[in-house]
Design goal:
It is built from nine helices and seven strands; from the N terminus they run αββααααββαββαααβ. It is α+β, with helices and mostly antiparallel strands and 211 residues long. It has a domain at 31-117 and 132-173. A hairpin with a 6-residue loop joins strand 3 and strand 4 (106-111). Helix 2 runs antiparallel to helix 7. The model is unreliable at 174-194 and 199-211 (pLDDT under 50). GO terms for molecular function: zinc ion binding. It comes from Suillus discolor. This is MYND-type domain-containing protein. InterPro entries: Znf_MYND.
């Protein structure tokens, strides 16, 4: 069966493995409109190896995350107060963990530096915390952001909030027809050197892109 010309031109960002573009020009425009900043955050939402299982389930995981947090609002408030008393030096650096690896799901509030790191030595959570804090004057509801612990095979991974990442990474990446029709300028050429892309007709997932 032949693949349509439109489908064959689609591209996936090889950095986060989440964003999909209709063309290289659209990818470059999105990169300049914000994806440059949120690419790493999205990568930390799909796990250290960019599992297709997690990528394909992001919206479902985000739905569970939102449902659990809203449904246990009183419990979250209590745990935030307890964490603020237990970790007074880090009261402005608290993170809410939604543990979906157990039934029923459990909530924890702990300082950001206590989160499990992905394989490797990159201090991903402090970097994400800096990004989130730059967009907000004070932690909402007593914590900076939420994370979700999930199963991937026999392993467990703590992922950055899918609901937050999907909302913040794509809000403002829409652009007018005029922008897409503009010719590529020198800045776009420079930016393209930093772009990671992957043709969608390639089935393999790159393993060397880390948060």
């Amino acid at each position: 069966m032949r693949t349509s010309k439109f489908i064959s031109k689609k591209r996936r960002c090889s950095g986060c493995l989440v964003s999909i573009y209709c063309s290289e020009k659209c990818q470059r425009t999105a990169w300049r409109n914000g994806h440059r900043k949120w690419c790493q955050v999205l990568r930390c939402t799909v796990g250290p190896w960019g599992s297709s299982d997690i990528r394909n389930s992001l919206q479902v995981i985000a739905g569970f995350e939102i449902t659990q947090i809203s449904g246990m609002a009183k419990d979250v408030e209590t745990r935030v107060r307890e964490a603020q008393q237990k970790f007074p030096a880090f009261s402005d650096k608290l993170v809410l963990m939604v543990d979906l690896t157990v039934y029923s799901p459990k909530m924890y509030v702990l300082p950001v530096h206590m989160l499990e790191q992905f394989p490797g030595e990159d201090p991903i959570w402090p970097e994400i915390a800096d990004e989130i804090r730059a967009r907000s004057d004070s932690p909402p509801k007593g914590y900076m952001f939420s994370v979700v612990k999930v199963h991937l095979g026999k392993s467990k991974f703590t992922l950055f909030s899918p609901s937050t990442a999907l909302r913040m990474a794509f809000e403002g990446q829409y652009f007018s027809d005029d922008e897409t029709n503009n010719s590529i300028d020198e800045d776009e050429i420079d930016d393209s050197k930093s772009l990671g892309d992957q043709d969608l007709d390639c089935d393999s997932d790159p393993l060397d892109n880390k948060c």
